[in-house]
Design goal:
Largest sheet: 4 strands, antiparallel
Distance between the termini: 69 Å
Strand order of the largest sheet: 2-1-3-4
Order of helices and strands: HEEHHEE
Helix content: 25-40%
Number of strands: 4
Number of helices: 3
Length: about 120
């Protein structure tokens, strides 16, 4: 057994992924005058985040809900009934309420490869 073979057996190869997934982008703005904000920006990591990190769990749930929503065909008539859409909407509303947004309307857009594929608004009551 030569050194090259031994080294390849000790260091894993990550070539089992065909191509990396194209990550969808989720943008939100509270009032139409504001700039779009990235709703999927990962939260900052802290040392205690190894044990308790609700912000990271929310980020993970939001990105999974978005990916699951995009697996279904997006037609505007069925969209409000889709479970993935309802979960995404509730997670976004919870984030906005936590940030102190209590009234008004928020606009949400989902992009894939830089193109808008879905836009909707959230009513903050």
């Amino acid at each position: 057994m030569n050194a090259h073979t031994l080294l390849r057996s000790l260091i894993p190869s990550f070539r089992f992924f065909d191509q990396p997934d194209i990550e969808p982008q989720l943008h939100i703005r509270i009032h139409s005058q504001q700039d779009w904000q990235d709703a999927l920006a990962p939260p900052p990591l802290k040392w205690y985040g190894l044990f308790y990190n609700p912000r990271w769990a929310e980020h993970h749930a939001l990105s999974n809900a978005l990916k699951n929503l995009l697996q279904d065909p997006l037609d505007s008539e069925r969209l409000p009934q889709l479970t993935g859409f309802q979960i995404l909407k509730l997670l976004l509303l919870a984030r906005l309420y936590r940030q102190g947004c209590r009234a008004g309307e928020a606009e949400v857009r989902i992009q894939l490869r830089g193109e808008d594929i879905l836009s909707f608004s959230l009513e903050l009551a």
